[in-house]
Amino acid sequence: MSDSRPGIPADRYVERLARCREAIAARGFAALLIGVGPDLRYLTGFVGEPMERLTLLVIPDVGPVRFVVPHLEATKAAATPLVAAGAADVVPFGETDDVAARVAGLLAGPETHARSSAGSLARGPIGLSDRLWAMHVLQLQRALPGRQFEPASMALRDLRQIKDADEARLLHLAAQAADRTMDAIAAGTLVGRTEAEVGREIRGRLIDEGHDLADFAIVGSGPNGAAPHHDASDRMIAAGEPVVLDLGGTLAGYGSDTTRTIWVAGEAGIAPEPEFQRVYDVVRAAQAAATTAVKPGVRAEEVDAAARHVIAAAGYGEFFTHRVGHGIGLETHEDPYMVSGNATPLRPGMAFSVEPGIYLPGRWGVRLENIVVCTDAGADVLNRSSLDLRVVRG
Ligand code: ZN
Ligand code: ZN
Ligand code: ZN
Fold first, then answer.
1. Mean pLDDT across the chain, nearest whole number?
2. 8 Å CB contact between 148 and 180
């Protein structure tokens, strides 16, 4: 492997598995069954899409860890860092095998069986990865009658939401690539192009900047900016209106997600509407207040409240219609969520967005979004493109 390609070193996966098994023991789980998705990537380095054939990392409370995969994926599974490091064995199955029954058999293996007959933890719940398809969940439930199932996130959440140094490094790289994309788009031509054209340019640039996936490119011009999750339509961008640009994807599996709202003045130099400038300043102040609120021990909901307070005090409370942020890592939206009701205390290593917005239906919207990592010294702001209102000619 070349040194220039960013990624997670193999020994990190061994360390994560060890911590996962501590979490299994602490929660009293009998086992975790992890299907294809972000949890599997986190634990093994396996990158893939879920499909009708079941692939499962079987992590019992004690005994060997097995990676149960269809034959045609066995080579790929053997090459994952966790397996290559000797911390899990690949168990391939054929097209006609009853995989769920095989998995049930593995869980009833000698080690766990001896413990269960002694009335031990082996009768505890089985954790299923949150993203496992219903068809697989139902097969496993039939193959393991009488067992209790819980979301594996009960054991994995605490691990995944605290980013290790390698993950923080990849989030930094992803944010920098997104910033360069944002700056290039703001410096280019917008007037006379459709949102979709600009969206395609964003996706292309994210890939050119090293992303492996350019997931989303929200281009909300004029009234479309009032819909926070508007995609990119065939609407033509005009002079004398704002555009909300919210872009991101993944770099080496880790997410970027940043939003800037710019004013398109055009050749005629149409100045921002006074209320737009006012709303922009409010959102910027809210974004700063929420960022300043980030400290270890502060509840996630307090970060939301910090932004909401600024916006409500300015009279726009009813137009800030979403939570202020979401965790980010292997998934663009993951724990912890910065939302009212989430009393989770922030801890160093948590990475999340801070993205207040004000949306005036039929007119426009303003949103500003940075990714931050909580550190002992407060928020480490990963996105560095300017938060000043950009008034662009093109
Ligand atoms: Zn979103
Ligand atoms: Zn976003
Ligand atoms: Zn976001």
1. 94
2. no
Q: How confident is the model at residue 117 (pLDDT cuts 50, 70, 90)?
A: very low
User: Does residue 42 contact residue 170 with C-beta atoms inside 8 Å?
Assistant: no
What is the end-to-end Cα distance of the chain in Å, rounded?
43
**Most distant CA atoms of the chain, gap in Å:** 81
Q: How far is the CA of 229 from the centre of ligand 1 (A)?
A: 6
Characterize the bridge pairing of strands 126-128 and 31-34: parallel
Domain coordinates in residue numbering, the chain = 11-160, 165-392
Query: How far does the centroid of ligand 2 lie from the alpha carbon of residue 255, in Å?
Result: 10
Q: What is the DSSP string of 4-37?
A: TS----HHHHHHHHHHHHHHHHHHT-SEEEE-TT
* Average pLDDT, integer, range 278-288: 98
Paired tokens of 171: 């989030």
Treating both helix axes as pointing N-terminal to C-terminal, what angle do 134-143 and 99-107 enclose, rounded to 10 degrees? 50
Nearest ligand atom owner, CA of 248: 2
Distance 218 CA to ligand 2 centre (A): 8
What is the structure's pLDDT at 316? 98
Q: Thinking of the domain 165-392, which architecture would CATH place it in? A: Alpha-Beta Complex (3.90)
Give the pLDDT band (50/70/90) at residue 109: low
pLDDT bucket at 114, cuts 50 / 70 / 90: very low
Average pLDDT over residues 218-231: 94
CB-based contacts of 324, cutoff 8 Å, min separation 6? 290, 303, 304, 306, 307, 308, 338, 339, 354, 355, 356
Quote the CA–CA distance of 310 and 167 in Å, as a whole number.
32
* Tokens 């703001």, located at residue: 186
Q: Which residues surround ligand 3, an ion (CB under 5 A)?
A: 257, 353
Distance (Å, whole) CA 261 – CA 241: 10
Ligand nearest to the CA of 326: 3
Ligand 2 center–CA 236 separation, angstroms: 22
Residue 338 is predicted with a pLDDT of 98
Q: What tokens were used for 292?
A: 């300043």
Residue 70, beta-bridge partner list: 93
pTM of the shown model: 0.93
CATH of domain 11-160: 3.40.350.10
Q: How many angstroms is it from 153 CA to the middle of ligand 2?
A: 24
